[in-house]
Amino acid sequence: MAETTGATTEATDAVSAAEGVGAGAAGAGAQAAAIGYEQARDELIEVVRRLEAGGTTLEESLALWERGEELARVCRHWLEGARARLDAALAEPERHGGGRED
Q1: DSSP notation for 28-57
Q2: DSSP 8-class letter at 96
Q3: d(Cα 47, Cα 32) in Å, to the nearest integer?
Q4: What pLDDT, on a 0 to 100 scale, did the predictor assign at position 100?
């Protein structure tokens, strides 16, 4: 019984965390500022592991799914930001008359 209570508490925590962040890019940006890419990725891996293992109630599964969606948005936000920085860095020499030899 203690295992079920722990899972319920974790699912409730996941729902609370997911509800604490707004949906969409603005929410992902705010959440990304709060947690880093690696933390979001690691938590997402754990959420997926728990969903794949089964043994949770429908409510717990839905809470985990929603948290996973939010974590995926956070990861995507970080990766898009990294891509933009790389693109800007690669474009920098072209703006100053230099260029890369391909």
Answers
A1: HHHHHHHS-HHHHHHHHHHHHHHHHH----
A2: T
A3: 17
A4: 54
